[in-house]
Write a structure and sequence with these properties.
Length: 239
């Protein structure tokens, strides 16, 4: 069964817009868990525009489900933060500075040695590692050589092309997933997954272990309520 990890970056964005503690990020994380979320994802960025580094410590001290910290391991502050908190999983994302959101996966061929080194740093601390990749078979193969436990398939292209031709949009993801399964890599996925495109993705990808969803889920919660929304997302993952 595919696990749902709720990304709470957008809750922090809302909180930071007024400078106080409303909404309370830790309370929202605990409520997400209470409403059925099987994990909590955050993606602290160097400018702390949403998740602050202190949030990571506060969340680690309170949540009970799998904690997934995503980010750019080229930032030493990020590496230190992850090592100090020892989440269940770290997801390595090749963010450029000032990027609005993540927009590409790692070139695992070009950066193989570097990724190998970083994977070993995190795995030595007992942290499961996932590498964010585009759905390209060669990138999946090279990711495996770094020693990573999992990959996270970057699903923006799938989401973007879903309405136009979902059968075509899913093809590279199926090929990437088959390769990952063949070489023993676990599969996560995320970015722009939503209530419309999630079911077909989850049904089509063999061995999908986890999806992390933030933007659409939190937006849906404005209309549907957080509890109902999380239940609806979980329903899409049951097949
Ligand atoms: C890694 C990834 O796919 C992103 O979706 C990310 O976690 C979202 O980050 P922002 O909330 O900063 O756009
Ligand atoms: N890893 C993807 C993630 O955490 C959330 O992405 P999005 O749903 O905010 O696009």
């Amino acid at each position: 069964m595919t696990k749902l990890s709720v990304n709470i970056n957008k809750i922090a964005t809302l909180r930071n817009s007024r400078g106080g503690n409303n909404p309370d990020l830790v309370k929202v994380a605990l409520d997400c868990e209470r409403f059925g979320s099987e994990g909590i994802t955050v993606h602290p960025r160097p400018d702390e525009r949403h998740i602050r580094y202190q949030d990571v410590f506060d969340l680690k001290a309170t949540i009970a489900t799998e904690f997934n910290i995503e980010g750019n391991c080229r930032e030493q502050k990020f590496v230190d933060l992850v090592l100090a908190n020892k989440p269940a999983q770290v997801t390595l994302v090749p963010d450029a500075e000032g990027q609005i959101t993540s927009n590409h996966g790692w070139d695992t061929i070009k950066h193989k040695d570097y990724l190998q080194e970083m994977v070993s740093v995190f795995k030595s601390a007992g942290i499961r590692v996932s590498i964010f990749v585009d759905p390209v078979v060669e990138m999946v193969e090279a990711a495996a050589e770094s020693g990573t436990d999992r990959i996270e398939l970057y699903t923006e292209a799938y989401a973007h092309n879903y309405y136009d031709n979902r059968e075509k949009a899913i093809l590279p993801y199926i090929a990437a997933a088959h390769k990952a399964n063949e070489i023993g890599l676990g599969i996560n996925a995320g970015h722009d997954l939503d209530l419309h495109n999630l079911k077909y993705f989850a049904e089509s990808i063999p061995g999908l272990l986890e999806v992390s969803i933030g933007h659409a889920l939190i937006s849906d919660a404005l209309y549907l309520g957080l509890e109902n929304t999380i239940q609806l997302y979980l329903k899409q993952l049951k097949h």
